[in-house]
């Protein structure tokens, strides 16, 4: 009996020792694997900055990350080197020093195509479909093609041959993977300051600079508006609206605009999120109130209280009557400049590099999501849907 108990005790001890040895071996193997398994570069790009810094500080991973190679494959309306990265991103919206220029390697050298993680194509300078199909044959599985465009779908080359080719988009649309709007704004701490009288020195009413004469909707609107209020039109199309007038580029033209109280910020196409320099370029020191006509949701994208929206009026005459009211009421007119106590145009320290880093900090969609690029860009672009509503303002 005693011998049986002794043998049982010895057997239990041996089993415990074996289990202990297995546990020690497994932990040692796990530590070795964690130190040697490489991390994919795209996975690193998606790590939160704090996580990456913590991993580096604790030396738990052997990380040797190279810069992301971004190949700009096309020109931009004939300009060869149209994207530049000269400084680190200094925006307070990007934490710490996580967006340094040494994190990306921007190149225009097509010989580096095979090593590039991202390849940018400007839609208006797009290579032929046969060329795209040829280089696609050698496209690395980890490479992302980016469809870049700042024009509206109405001014876009046919996208149907490109369906299934592009992985990401970089446009003014807020649902783009890389959002590159014409302008933006940010909130600032409210400061109560003495309100200036922005009507001083303005003895004229409405101005409009226009060079594209083919937008029949806005042309018809302006012709109708001229029945109720004086609108001075400048540019190559001005002869269609009365006596031809020119506005020289630069400071001389800005000085002309400063004489007016209102400016027609009319887009050439009414499309989703399409707000161009026609609005963003007129909220500076010219001190005019932009009158906007576009297909975007201005309450979502434009500076609150900085504009007059055509869509808020039932008829063109109603709009003209309101402008005459503001012309005679300086207090009401100056209200359209009170936004400057709460907001600033532009994002502090923002740049192409900041935009890129902001997207890298999110999870990319699976490659090939734009199998129907036309459905995304043209269909969801929602151009011309509001045209009839505008026409009803005078017909």
Keywords:
395 residues, alpha/beta, six-stranded parallel sheet, 31% helix, transmembrane helix, signal-anchor
Your description of this structure?
The protein has 395 residues and is α/β, with parallel strands linked by helices. It contains 13 helices and 13 strands. The strands form 3 sheets. The chain has a 6-stranded parallel sheet. The longest helix has 35 residues. The chain is elongated, with a radius of gyration of 30 Å. It starts with a helix and ends with a helix. It holds the Pfam family Glyco_transf_10. Keywords: Glycoprotein, Glycosyltransferase, Golgi apparatus, Membrane, Signal-anchor, Transferase, Transmembrane, Transmembrane helix.
Task: Please write out the topology.
Blueprint: H1 2-36, H2 41-46, H3 49-58, E1 68-72, E2 104-107, E3 118-122, H4 129-136, E4 144-149, E5 168-171, E6 178-179, E7 185-187, E8 204-209, H5 216-225, E9 231-234, H6 251-257, E10 260-266, H7 277-280, E11 289-293, H8 298-301, E12 308-309, H9 316-328, H10 330-334, E13 343-345, H11 352-360, H12 373-379, H13 387-391
Parallel strand pairs: 1-2, 1-3, 3-4, 4-5, 5-6, 8-9, 8-10, 10-11, 11-12
Antiparallel strand pairs: 7-13
Number of strands: 13
Radius of gyration, Cα only, in angstroms?
Answer: 30 Å
Helix content: 25-40%
What portion of residues belong to β-strands? 5-15%
Trace the largest sheet across and list its strands. 2-1-3-4-5-6
Q: Flag low-confidence runs.
A: 29-64
Apparent shape: elongated
Number of helices: 13
Main beta sheet strand tally, sense and closure: 6 strands, parallel
Structural class: alpha/beta
Residue-averaged pLDDT, rounded? 85
Measured between the Cα atoms of the first and last residue, the distance is 111 Å
Order of helices and strands: HHHEEEHEEEEEHEHEHEHEHHEHHH
Enzyme class: transferase
Membrane topology: Single-pass type II membrane protein
Domain Fucosyltransferase N-terminal: 66-183
Organism: Porites lobata
